Each structure stands twice: as C-alpha cells, then as structure tokens.
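re: ur question from yesterday

yeah so i grabbed the chain u mentioned. its 677 aa long if i counted rite. heres the sequnce exactly as i have it in my notes:
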Amino acid sequence: MACFAIARIMLQHSYVENEAIPLHVNKVYSDNTQLQYAFYDLPFVCPPTGEKHAGYASGRRVSLNLGEVLRGDRIMASDYDLAMGQDNECRYLGSHKTDRKGVQRARQLIEDGYVTEYIVDNLPGATSFVTPDKSQKYYAAGFKLGFKDFSPTNGRPRYFINNHLIRRKGGRVIVGFEVFPKSIEAGHRDRDGCPQDVHGDNEGMELYLTQNSTIAARDFPHSSDQLPEEEVSDGMTLNIPYSYSVYYREDNKIEWSRRWDPYFNNQEEGNSIHWLAIINSLVISSLLTAVVVMIFAKTIIGDVRGRSKDGSAEEGRVKLKSRPPKLRSKPLHEKSAGLLEQKSENEEGDNSSDDEFVEDVSGWKQLHGDAFRSPHYAGLLPPLIGSGSQLVFMAFGLLILSTLGVLNPSFRGGFVSVGVGLFIFAGLVSGYFSARLYKTFNGSDWRRNTLQTALLFPGALFTTLFVLNLFVWAQASSTALPFGTLVGIVALWLLVQLPLVYVGSWYGEHYSKPYDHPTKTSKIPRQIPGQPWYTTPAYSVLLAGLVPFAVIFIELLFVFRSIWQDKSGYYYVFGFLSVVSFVNIVTVIEVTIVSTYVQLCAENYHWWWQSIFTGAGSAVWIYIYCVWFYWTKLNIQGLISGLLFFSYCGLGCAVYGLLMGTVGFITAYTFVRRIYA
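ran it thru and got these structure tokens back, copy pasting raw so excuse formatting
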C-alpha cells in the first residue's frame, strides 16, 4: 500500500567532509511507451540487501506526495555508498543471476530506449550534453539502461547493459549529479568484483545465454557462443555484475539556487519561439478586442440609442409609435369638416400610441421576452458550471504559484499535488455557484443538485482513470496507481470535497439571492427563424474554437514535449505559459461575446449551452493536435501505450474544455444581462 504526503519542499543541505549521502533509485521510463517500471521490480538488477546506507535501509520506500505517485514515481533507498568529497575509483555493488525471461525483458527495455532515474539530494541523475558550439552544457534527466548494436560478423543485433556507473558531483553542497553509464564485460575483474581497468577499452556486458548455464558469462565473451533463441532453456542463467565509481569535482560557477538551470538550458534555446508564441497571441487577441469594441461602440450602443429615441422599455417590451389609423371616406359635403375631424383623430392616434406596445422588427431586441428562458436540461447546467468553477480556481492558483516560484522542480510532483488540493478546497466555490444558478432556474431540490455537483464530473473522471488503471495494472507498470492511493483519492473526494460542496451549496441556497434578470420571460416561446450556416452549433463551435487554439498552439508544442517525450516532466517556463494562458482566457471571453451577439442577432435565444460549447471549442482542435503530435513527433509502440496516450489526451481536453466552457458561460451570461439591462 502506497502512502503519500501533501507536500515536501527541498531545502538547501550542506554536507561536511566524509558525510554519507543517500542515493535513491526511482524508475525506468521511455519516450517510446507510456509504461514505466520501478527500478527494483526489474528482474535483471541487483535486489536491495536491506543494509543501512546513510541512515536508510536499502529497499525502503520513500513517502511520496500524491503528484509523485500519479506520475509513476517509486523512490527507494539503494545500496550505493557515497561520502562527501571521497572519490572512489571502483566499488563492487553485487551481481545478479537472471534467467531467460530476465534477459528477454532487459533486451526489450533496451530496444524501447528506456532510461533510469537515480536521485541524489533531490537532483535526478543526468546525462550531460553540450551545445554544437560547445558554449553551453545542458542535462537530460536519466541515463540509458543499455544500448544496442550489430555484430560485425553476422549482422545480428547485440544488446549490452550498462552495469558500471561513473558519477560526478559538486562540492560541499551538491550542485550537479552527472552519470556516465558504461557496459563492462563480466570477465577481467578483480577478486572484489571490480573491472581491472575501469577507464580503458572494455568489452561490453552483452545480454545472451551460454551453452552451459552453470558457467559464468566471462568464459564466453563473444556473441558467437550465443545460442539461438529457440535453443535457450528456462534453466539457463546469466550472471550480471554491477559496480560504480564516484568522483567529486568542485564547481564554483553554479550556485545551489541555480543548480536546476542545466536541466532547462535546452528549453532556453527555444526562448525566441516562446516570444513568437506571445506575439502571436497578442496579435490575435488585439484583433478580437477591436471587433468587440466595434460591437459595443457601434452596434449595441447604436441600437440602445435608437431604442431610446423611438421608445422606451417597460416590463420587457419596447414602446414604439404605432401606425396612423386608416382614413375613413366621407361625403363631399362633409369634406371640410371631415378634414378637421381626421386631423383630430390622427392626433388622438398619436397620443394613444404612447400606451401601445409593439415589438421592434430588428435583431436581438426581439428576444427580450425569451433571452432568459431556462434552457433545455437546465438541471445539468448548474453542476457542470459548479465543477468548471473549481477548475478555474485551480488553474489560476497553479499559474500564480508557479509564476511566483512556489512550485519549482525541487518540489517533485508538487504541481499535481497542489492542483488536487486546490480543486478539493474549491468545492466551496463549486457548491455556491451551482446552488445559486440552480436557484435562478427555480430549482426546488437543492440537495439533489449538491450531490450532482459533487459526484458528476469527479465521478466520471475517477471512473475513467480507474478503468485505464486496470490496463496498466495488467502490465505490472509503476504507472498504475496502488490500491492504497485509490482509496486515498476516494477518501479525499467523498470525505473532504463532498462536505465542502455541501457547505457552499447550503450557503448559496439560504443566504444568496438568485441572479436577477432585467426582462421578464414571456409565457409562449418565440419561434426561431431559419439560421445562417455559421450560427449552427457545429460550425459555430469549430470556428469559434479555432481562434483560441491559434493563440496557444505554439506553446502547446513545448508542453506536449515535456509531458509525452520528457517523462521527467520538468517544464517550468511558467513566465511564458502564464502570459499565453492569460491571453488565451481573454481570447475565449472575446470570442464568446462575438459568437453570442451573432446568435442573438439571428433571433436564436438558445445561447446557454451554446456559450459553453463556444468556450470549449478549442478543446476539439487541441485533441486534433494530439493526433497530429502522435503520428509526427512520437514513436509510441504497443496497443496499451497508444490507448493510454489517446485516453489521457481525451481526459485533458475534457478538463480544459469544461474550464474554458465555464469561462465562456460566465462571459455570455454577463454580456446578455448587460445588453438587456
């Protein structure tokens, strides 16, 4: 059973000379698959001995926060002995005999490009690279589990496992953790198990089984002794020795507070692209702002002025001058008197027209009696808007905390953990807005609405994750959530969020008034005329959603690379992301205003659900972008990995769609109330 903590923030730790430093092992992961595995669950690595190193018994699990568990981390103490400032040319870790299945598993993981993650002082072990001009170094978290090449004699593929690690670190405080993996054959080793020449040219530790399962692999160092796959028996084993070297090098160029910079130097190369994304967002948003200003300045204000000039609004109707009465025919001898009488009748007609109400024949003003008519499925709208308000609260909280630096790489899993915490706490906000909107629709059973708000969206999300988790469980992957974590999530949902939603709903029901509408709703619904093609739901949603997508699609590339290619998930360029997200929200607001106004001008008062779909329209394009990214940028293999990719993308788009749909609804509701006020 896995346990998780709410938060764990790494503080600076200074080590004295010879002080023991704990090294933790985490997991193996690959860009080519969505399945991750705990390091000590692999059948070909040395299992933990249980001995204490730096105060930790090897194999002991480290308590994880919820975000770490959800991202597949399984951090455990290791048998590596590290001491500050003490170089170690070679140290024998141990050897492990693996059978046919273990060898096949190792080959498959190497074929899929898996990398291993070790952790020292909360820094992930990294493979270092330099830029083409050799002016800058950057890190890629993790190091290769092994490598593959081809035999020069027969062209057969050969698989080598990296069984010797060379580690380099900083001085009194650890500012870097570089790992140089190396494959060294089992033969030519000293009695203590270390290679005779660590830094020389050595034959690699090839993964193959020999003809005699009792003979060590060093006696058959060449792949020509490898048996064909069909002749390998289950009783044969391969003994893999493991060793490591440790070197400390003082680096005065990197401060402890800046030690994560090398992990992001490769992202900084894309700063020009980030600025391009911001400029692109601002240009699109500025054009939309001009359109919205034009609507308010010329169209709506002009209509209201004309309305004030020709009549006035009273009880939701427009008072206009009626047509003059028809003239009555009179005899000729009454012509003169008739003219006087006719004039008097016309004057009386003008006076009586002040009390006669007729409908205007233009645009949105005709909908004054239907604009606030309750929509279809009105009972479903408040729970969705309530859950959407939770997501809005969570999103703004995460962006603010990330921009301020509270959420940073040293807080592993912090982004997800804090996000879940904000979402749970926002149950108060969800219950309040849901109850007040439900009250506006004259709902009578507020407790039922409370349960729908607390259970509908979170329940659908949890059910989908649980079903996907069954597939991952079958693969014995660390990506699968442990049973204890599932129980903890359900407890947070039902024992914390549900009561908070109830409290918010109770306050909204008993201490808040329903939203007031400036016009009265007529008893008989108005017949909606034929609609232009661009106001139909499908075209309107796709066209309106394309604009916000155009604002964010450049930044999406960096986010997708961080999530799907760099499994470590170190994307913390939140300065750019916050600006683009803010502009995206402004764009959704403006698009919703334009779309709602066009719909009202077409005399269609079904704007309630349409405003949600308009705000969420960009989620459709984001999912299409996911499909494009899958086929052009990723090399994901396997049915389960593909299923996980498209399912998680669908969930992400659904969450984003509900968030932006809520923003669109709030915008449209405020806009419609304003123009009819």
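noticed a couple things. Confidence is low (pLDDT under 50) at residues 1-9, 212-225, 310-361. also Residues 20-264 form one domain.
anyway ttyl
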